[in-house]
Design goal:
This protein is an alpha+beta fold. About 25% of the residues lie in helices and about 20% in strands. It contains five helices and eight strands, in the order H-H-E-E-H-H-H-E-E-E-E-E-E. The chain has a two-stranded antiparallel sheet with strand order 1-2. A hairpin with a 4-residue loop joins strand 3 and strand 4. The longest helix is centred in the middle third of the chain and has 17 residues. It is elongated.
């Protein structure tokens, strides 16, 4: 434990440990972590201000506070030690919102980013391992990213095969890098 820790209320200890007053667990000395880790249950992101319990989502914290508030009243705990349900303003302040398209474009334009796509497979006749790599650059030196596009279907399964045998999947390599428009926000 760090020296000089307060011996009083849990809120004093959380403030000393660097937890933000908004009940989020993402301030120094805690390392900045991805929100998706909390959303998938791999870490906590919210802290109960009354008891110090940690939760992976705002919804779990909201349910904990509502249940514990009723339980604390039924147990005749002193008012200053009781949980209380979270207000709508507190829930809104804690709720994570995903960035919009413009936020992402702005972020990508401010630096050099590279996305490396790896595709691995096994060739069935010889059981040889195959690997293909491609690099996409965003910002900085160029921009390989496009919006509202998807790769065109480059595989075809014929409805019949010659001689009545099994149909075989055909790959049209001319369409391999072809893009087609998909519904989106309208800008590309």
């Amino acid at each position: 434990a760090r020296s000089g820790a307060p011996q009083g209320r849990a809120s004093d200890l959380r403030a000393w440990a660097g937890l933000q007053p908004g009940m989020r667990r993402d301030a120094w000395p805690a390392a900045a972590q991805r929100q998706v880790d909390a959303e998938s249950g791999n870490r906590s992101s919210c802290v109960c201000q009354t008891c110090g319990s940690e939760f992976g989502s705002v919804e779990l914290l909201r349910r904990h506070c509502a249940y514990s508030a009723a339980s604390d009243v039924a147990s005749d705990l002193p008012k200053e030690l009781q949980h209380r349900p979270l207000s709508e303003a507190e829930v809104h302040a804690l709720t994570h919102t995903d960035p919009c398209r413009e936020d992402i474009k702005d972020h990508l334009s401010q630096g050099y980013f590279e996305v490396v796509a790896l595709v691995e497979g096994t060739e069935p006749t010889t059981a040889s391992g195959l690997q293909a790599r491609h690099s996409y650059i965003a910002g900085g030196l160029g921009d390989d990213l496009v919006w509202d596009r998807a790769f065109a279907d480059c595989t075809v399964l014929p409805t019949r095969s010659a001689g009545g045998g099994h149909a075989r999947l055909a790959l049209d390599l001319a369409k391999f890098h072809e893009l087609q428009e998909v519904p989106g926000e309208g800008d590309s």
